[in-house]
Amino acid sequence: MEGIVSGKEAGKRQWLYPLVRKGTLYKWRSWISYVYLIFFFAGPFLRINGQPLLLLNFFDRQFVLLGQVFWPQDIFLFMLASLVFIVCIVLFTIAFGRIFCGWICPQTIFMEMLFRKIEIWIEGAPNKRKKLDAGPWDKEKVIKKTSKHVLFIILSFLIANTFLAYLIGSENLIKTITGPITEHWVGFGSIWLFTTVFYLVYTRVRELVCTVICPYGRLQGVFIDKHTLVVAYDDVRGEPRGKLDRKADPLAAHKGDCVDCHLCVDVCPTGIDIRQGTQMECVNCTACIDACNDVMAKINRPLNLIGFFSENMIREKEKPSFTGRMKGYTAIITILVGVLCYFIFSRSDMDLTVMRNAGTIYQERPNGMISNIYTAEIINKTNKPRSIILRSEDPAFKIEYIQSVKSIAAGESVKAMFFVITPASRIHAVETDVKLQLVSGDKIAQTVSTTFVGPIND
Hints:
Layout: E1 5-6, E2 15-16, H1 24-42, E3 47-48, E4 51-52, E5 54-57, E6 62-65, E7 68-70, H2 75-96, H3 99-103, H4 106-123, H5 126-134, H6 139-168, H7 170-178, H8 185-205, H9 208-213, H10 215-223, E8 230-233, H11 235-238, H12 263-266, H13 287-298, E9 306-309, H14 311-315, H15 324-346, E10 350-356, E11 363-365, E12 369-380, E13 386-387, E14 389-392, E15 398-403, E16 407-408, E17 413-423, E18 431-440, E19 443-453
Antiparallel strand pairs: 1-2, 3-4, 5-6, 6-7, 8-9, 10-12, 11-12, 12-17, 13-16, 14-18, 15-17, 18-19
Helix pairs in contact: 2-15, 4-6, 6-7, 6-8
């Protein structure tokens, strides 16, 4: 049997050497991981309307999602997105458990689909890796360890650069890499800081990120209940477990389907025994399902002794189905994401707010003209400077600037003060609706309504 842990002395770190079994679910995870990795490394360089797919530039307070630029003025959308994200996590976990951790989480994908594969390629199967770690520093060990860690550093360096590109943009990253160190010492320092962090995470910390550090795993026990689908062992069918004995007496006490091969433990990346029930450390990676199904197929027993089960499916023999509860949670998640997408893609590039100055009334002017004074705040939500002008939709209302603005920088806001002037003969009520247009270039960016007060013309 392949060994999976080392260092069981009290107080000493238990190093894991998980076995890899390439079953059906592992192949699905691999394809999902390949797609994820392609988008991760290509993301900062892909463009939509000249904008990256994703940019989280906290330093310049600029954020881009699917080509849409967001600035601090879009705090409403940020709060809505945060609320949707939290609700989706809670509802998804209540319905489907911690499957995100095993299939989508970057920590798992990088560890199992990149670093682990490099380690297996160089050092071999679990028993060979364990023996190599315990053995003396001979020529073979030096070559293998050096080769592995050199590749780990290179991979950590690539991940660090990509991660930084999501924070400062690919253009700034290229300038940092190609420019003199003296001009980009902060950028170079950040690259090597992230490289060191990623290297230590995937060489030393490893599964502790999932079992100790990540708060999501600890919250799992609060979210799941007897209806939640999780990776679970069907103990009703599997117990009492025992070694397979093909010559056993047919009249002897019945054994369960579990042959106690220990493979479900050997393949677990967090080192747990799924047969002990649902545990916080389980990341729902499904490696144990593939391993167990392989054994069940060989001994002609039904598959899925370990599978996606809820407690009710095991205890109450409920049929596996997409329950009404799961449909409801999925519908809520879909609606919330839809609402968020609507607000994101319907937002305007420019934002205009106009307020008549508080505490002021109309002003009477020569030649029978009436004026009101206003203050406008204009926000440019794009990443390019814009030329702007304010005008009235009704030609009878003219704008006279006190403090004019002709252009606005990317992501900035400006204020303008102006009079709106109209003949007194046009006033037939105490308050008259006036529509003002914000024009940028040749297009009307936004139209807002405000009120114009004046004496009633009989």
